[in-house]
Every structure is written in C-alpha cells, then in structure tokens.
Design brief:
β6, α7 and β7 form a beta-alpha-beta unit. 46% of the residues lie in helices and 17% in strands. It contains 14 helices and eleven strands. The longest helix is centred in the last third of the chain and has 35 residues. It is an alpha/beta fold and 345 residues long. α2 runs antiparallel to α11. It has a single domain, classed as D-Maltodextrin-Binding Protein, domain 2 (3-Layer(aba) Sandwich), CATH 3.40.190. The strands form two sheets. A six-stranded mixed sheet has the order 7-6-8-5-9-11, with helices on both faces. It has a five-stranded mixed sheet with strand order 2-1-3-10-4, with helices on both faces. It starts with a helix and ends with a helix. The protein binds (2R,3R)-2,3,4-trihydroxybutanoic acid (EAX).
C-alpha cells in the first residue's frame, strides 16, 4: 500500500473511533412528556448483586430475597437486590474477593473461607466451640460478635449481621459413623480452612479442601468419600442422593455473616446506612427461623429418603479434636476463646 493510502486509512480509523465514542456517550433522548401529565419524580434505581453458593431454595438465597424486598420497600424503590445463588458468581472465596473489589455488593458466606482474609473469625471455626443455639446467639449478637465484625475494618468487607448456616454433620458413602475411630481413612471434603482440616486430621480422616460448587460431583464420582455440612445444605443440595450415611456430630458451628462491599457502604447516606443495617438484622431473623424450622424436620426427611442416621456420642469427638485448641490458641487468642466459652455457661 502506498504511503498516502495508509495515511487516509489512519485518518478514517480515527474518525470512525471518534464517532463511535461520541455515539456511546450521547444521552438517550428522553421520551416526550405527554401533554398535561405530571412528571413523576425520577428515582435512580440501583441494582445490587448478592452472591451465595448453596441452591436457590436454601435460606441464604431466600433470606437475601427477603432482604431485597424489605430494602426496596424501605428505600422507596431506590435499591433492588438481584440474587445469584448456586455459585453462579463463583466459590465463596471468589465471592469474598468480589465483595472486596466491589464487583459483588453482598454475599452470605460461611466464616471458614474468611480465614484467608482475616483472623477475626477463627474462633468460630474451632470444633465444639458452641454448645447450642442459645450460646451462638448470645455470642454473635452481643459484644463479642460486634468485636469480631469490627475486626474486618480495612479489609474492604463490612460485616452486617450474623446469619445462620448451622451445626455441621458428617455424611459419607463408606460406613456408619459412631466413634472418631470410624472416621479413619475417610476422605472428607472440608472448606478451605486450616482449623477444620486439622480437626479432621486429629481423628485420622483425610481432609480435602474444595469449593462447594464442585462437591456434589466429587461425591458422586467418589473423588471424596464424604463431606460435612448443616442439614439444610445437605438436603437442598441433595447430598442424600450420593451419600448413604449421616452422623449427627454437630462438630463445628458455622455462622454465615452477611458481607457488604465497603465501596457500597461508603456511598450510602447516613440515613441509608441505618436502613441497610436494620434490614440486614430483620432479614437475619427471618433467615435464622427458616434454618431452624428446616432443622426440626430434616432428620426425618433425610431418613425417609434412605439415609442411615447415627447419633454418635459427641463428647468422644470433642475429646479427640481437642488438641486443635493447643495448636491454634495463640493465633485465635486465648482470651477470646475463654470469653466465647464463658458465654455458654
Ligand atoms: O456456606 O462450603 C460449605 O460447605 C458451606 O457450608 C456452604 O457453602 C455454605
């Protein structure tokens, strides 16, 4: 090509680019007002993305839907929440990263994968840290819980409220579990959390961390023998289809903080902050109730679906996993462990 032709081509490209750019920026023409009609005050609508990993019918997602309804109502339509359950926006780790970056606005996650982002939640990952739901609520809704959430400052995450995942139970395809010894050699999927992995190593199992979205297939293809989760997760994810045995060990309690992006929080007015906080708390109560209602009936339902259910002596597991406390107490904080424990007495 001649030099002159090249020049013309270059000019053409630049002009074309400029035109496209201009067209992109140009305002869309507003539809003309109909004669005599009052102009409605325009509310700028902001759509918030909310991610979770369990299926759409799990209380994480149902709770986020409720949160959205209340929020839209209370902000006169300004904020709308669009939910993305079933790992649509990635694993819990990816969701946390997304919330940090502001590409995801909200997420409900277990505290376990938060261990890679902050030490604040480690105390909740210890085996048999919580006795029952009374103990859980007393700790998480009180000063200790507030202190834990406050420790997120500077991470890009705002901890809005502790929602509920639940007490975790073991399922597997190998054998009925009654004692810690029964877990010997069982390849069990855990969350990406060192305390959880150490706890299972203590009882001779073979912990394998894996994102939740890959778990069903891994169980089906027997890449792992088992997994551990609260009953509502086991049931909504249909793990009963690929696991024969369920042991009600309740070995970890998994809180599920509603996380919000700091970038979004910083944009809210003082009044909106109050609305968001109140709504996070109200939706928490709704979500918790859904979980506890499910817990009440799920053992029966899972049995009816063919799972063999055992109720092991929990104190045996507690004793066998206890050395994890010695290993982790400095990192978690001895005082904090003591405070949490004392709240259960
Ligand atoms: O947070 O990964 C898990 O096992 C969690 O319990 C689940 O994703 C909900």
């Amino acid at each position: 090509m001649k030099k002159r032709n090249l020049k013309i081509l270059a000019v053409l490209v630049v002009v074309l680019f400029a035109v496209t750019l201009f067209a992109g920026c140009a305002k869309k023409e507003e539809p003309k007002q109909e004669e005599g009609k009052q102009e409605e005050p325009k509310v700028e609508q902001i759509v918030l993305k909310a991610a979770s990993t369990p299926p759409a019918d799990h209380p994480y997602n149902l709770g986020l839907v409720e949160f959205g309804k209340l929020l839209t109502e209370r902000t006169n339509g300004k904020y709308v929440v669009e939910t993305f359950p079933a790992s649509q926006l990635g694993s819990e780790r990816e969701a946390i990263e997304g919330v940090q970056m502001g590409t995801i606005d909200l997420s409900v996650v277990s505290t376990a994968p938060l261990a890679g982002f902050s030490d604040a939640f480690l105390v909740t990952d210890l085996p048999f840290m919580f006795k029952d739901y009374n103990h859980v609520y007393k700790v998480l809704d009180g000063e200790i819980g507030q202190g834990i959430m406050k420790n997120l400052e500077g991470t890009g995450l705002v901890g809005m409220a502790f929602w509920d995942n639940g007490f975790r139970n073991i399922t597997n395809s190998k054998r009925a579990i009654m004692t810690p010894e029964d877990m010997k050699g069982i390849k069990i999927r855990t969350m990406e959390n060192q305390i959880h992995m150490d706890s299972f190593k203590q009882i001779g199992a073979d912990p394998t961390p894996m994102a939740f979205g890959e778990l069903f297939t891994a169980l089906q293809q027997k890449t792992v023998d088992g997994q551990e989760n609260p009953l509502p997760i086991i049931s909504t994810s249909k793990f009963d289809e690929v696991q024969d045995h369920l042991a009600l060990t309740g070995h970890f309690y998994a809180p599920a903080p509603l996380l919000m992006s700091q970038a979004l929080w910083d944009k809210l007015s003082a009044e909106e902050k109050v609305i968001f906080q109140d709504t996070a708390n109200d939706a928490r109560d709704i979500e918790r109730k859904m979980i506890t209602d499910m817990n009440d009936k799920l053992v029966g339902e899972l049995k009816a679906k063919g799972m063999q259910v055992t109720e092991p002596d929990k104190s045996l597991f507690q004793e066998a996993m206890a050395p994890v406390y010695d290993k982790w107490q400095d990192k978690v904080g001895k005082d904090l462990i003591e405070k949490v424990r004392a709240a259960g007495n």
